[in-house]
Amino acid sequence: MTAQIISGAELAKEIRGQLAKEVEVLKQKGIEPGLAVILVGDDPASHSYVKGKQKACAEVGIRSTLLTFPATITEQFLLEKIQELNADPSVHGILVQLPLPSHINELKVIETISPEKDVDGFHPINVGRMMVGQKAFLPCTPYGILVMVKSIGVDIAGKHVVVVGRSNIVGKPVGQLFLREHATVTYCHSKTNNLAAITRQADILIVAVGKARLIGADYVKPGAVVIDVGVNRLENGKLCGDVNFDEVKEVASYITPVPKGVGPMTITMLLHNTIEAAKELMHR
Ligand code: GUN
Q1: Which residues have any ligand 1 atom within 6 Å of their CB?
Q2: Which of 169, 229, 272, 274 to mutate to test the pocket of ligand 1 (most atoms within 8 A of CB)?
Q3: Which one in 10, 36, 50, 167 has a CA-CA gap of 20 to 30 Å to 98?
Q4: Which of the residues are catalytic?
Q5: 3-class SS string, 48-115
Q6: Rounded to whole angstroms, how far apart are CA atoms 278 and 90?
Q7: Tens-digit pLDDT profile for residues 31-61
Q8: CATH 3.40.50.300 describes domain 140-263
Q9: What is the pTM (predicted TM-score) of this model?
């Protein structure tokens, strides 16, 4: 049996069509959703991600503004720019592309973004709201993964979800989102003993570690749903995930590809959050 491929690209296209209609309605009410994106330094991957985000904004009618700064700016300078955007009523969402240069404290930067404009869902206020089940901006990659898994119609309640990776951006919050859906959640990471013995118990396996093809067929239970968040650049310039796709597709029931898997869904949820931010502002 070969796994069915969950096409993030196709699902993203469908959702973006709906989002474009929502933006139309907002515009008729005189609101143009606006996203400000801050990019510091010249990391090629970050530039490529930001380009993708801006293109997607344009597709659905969100106005995006890009602020690029050299890696040499001070932390104070960046915090002041964020404060200016916090005060700008035409900006509904603020996104600071990570990683930042090492002399800048990422958490301090994130905490400076107004929680009401934190469309990445990284501010501790939004993380806390998510944890206790309050209305919050959900982080885009975990949210996109949840929407993808729901799209195949699996009943998440009671399922064993194994998350490999514990980053603040993906691993930790994605486990929480599935816990909210009544899954049994296990976290694995670089210090986990006998990783394969644990991942083989997963009904839904989510891998976000950034190690090319870490997960082979022997890490996967037959029939599992496998979500690959990894984006690794190989020496030949091609992208590959954390999952050995060719091997695992022969074992899994569903699998996400890289590229065109989780990536397009991350961006889609960013668009969704930005539109929500614009709607909320209308009610305040
Ligand atoms: N770097 C890697 N993923 C992300 C993301 O989702 N948002 C931001 N701001 N930076 C990232």
Answers
A1: 95-98, 120, 140-141, 169, 266
A2: 169
A3: 10
A4: 53, 97, 120
A5: HHHHHHHHHHHHHCCEEEEEEECCCCCHHHHHHHHHHHHHCCCCCEEEECCCCCCCCCHHHHHHHCCH
A6: 9
A7: 999 999 999 999 999 999 999 999 999 999 9
A8: no
A9: 0.97
Is 151 annotated among the ligand-binding residues? no
Domains of the chain by residue range = 30-114, 140-263
Pick among 3.40.50.10860, 2.40.10.120, 3.50.30.30, 3.30.450.20: CATH of 30-114:
3.40.50.10860
Token code pair at residue 209: 């570690």
- For a mutational test of ligand 1's pocket, the pick from 82, 120, 272, i.e. the residue with the most ligand atoms closer than 8 A to its C-beta, is 120
The closest alpha carbon to 169, from 112, 117, 122, belongs to: 122
The 10s digit of each residue's pLDDT in 57-83 is: 999 999 999 999 999 999 999 999 999
Confidence grade of residue 281 (pLDDT, cut at 50, 70, 90): confident
The answer to whether 164 is annotated as binding is no
Helix (H, G, I), strand (E, B) or coil at 34: strand
Token pair for 84: 């200016």
231 CA from centroid of ligand 1 (Å) = 12
Ligand 1 centroid, distance to 139 Cα (angstroms): 9
SS3 272: helix
* 132 is annotated as contributing to ligand binding: no
**Where does residue 9 rank: exposed (0-12), middle (13-18), buried (19+ CB within 10 A)?**
middle
